[in-house]
Design goal:
The chain has about 120 residues and is an alpha+beta fold. The chain contains two helices and five strands; from the N terminus they run ββαβββα. The chain has one domain. The strands form two sheets. Strands 3-4-5 form a three-stranded antiparallel sheet, covered by helices on one side. β3 and β4 form a beta hairpin. It is globular. The two termini are about 25 Å apart. The protein binds zinc ion (ZN) (2 copies). The site of one zinc ion (ZN) has 8 residues, from loops.
């Protein structure tokens, strides 16, 4: 089945397992992820969906930006942040910045940029 390019960055994407019997499509470049589904085919279908405004996959506007984890590299801490759609569970591109607030801002910028 044909997998559309990433709606955020235009990169190639692949379907990956998340849990037993759960799948989602992830962008190989920016790590954005589509909605999780119970089969590969459904996960690809959900990823290929394009609804314009708000969330690119479901059109939802209930978006939340969250920061998680910290990676220690080259003597500095880096924060990970993403925008997530509460309606379908899809996630925007991963931002990695050495400041928590900036990481969240960057995640929002990356989310909006490709749309
Ligand atoms: Zn991407
Ligand atoms: Zn959504």
């Amino acid at each position: 089945m044909r997998i559309e390019r990433c709606p955020f960055c235009g990169g190639d994407a692949a379907v990956v397992p998340t849990n037993p019997n759960r799948w989602r499509v992830e962008c190989n470049v920016c790590l954005a992820a589509g909605p999780e589904r119970s089969s590969e085919a459904e996960a690809v279908e959900a990823w290929n969906e394009r609804r314009g405004e708000g969330c690119p996959f479901c059109g939802g506007r209930d978006l939340v930006t969250y920061s998680y984890g910290q990676a220690y590299s080259n003597g500095r801490y880096f924060y990970h942040a993403r925008v997530m759609c509460r309606a379908c569970g899809s996630e925007g591109p991963l931002a990695v910045v050495d400041d928590k607030k900036e990481a969240m801002r960057e995640a929002e910028r990356l989310f909006k940029e490709g749309k």
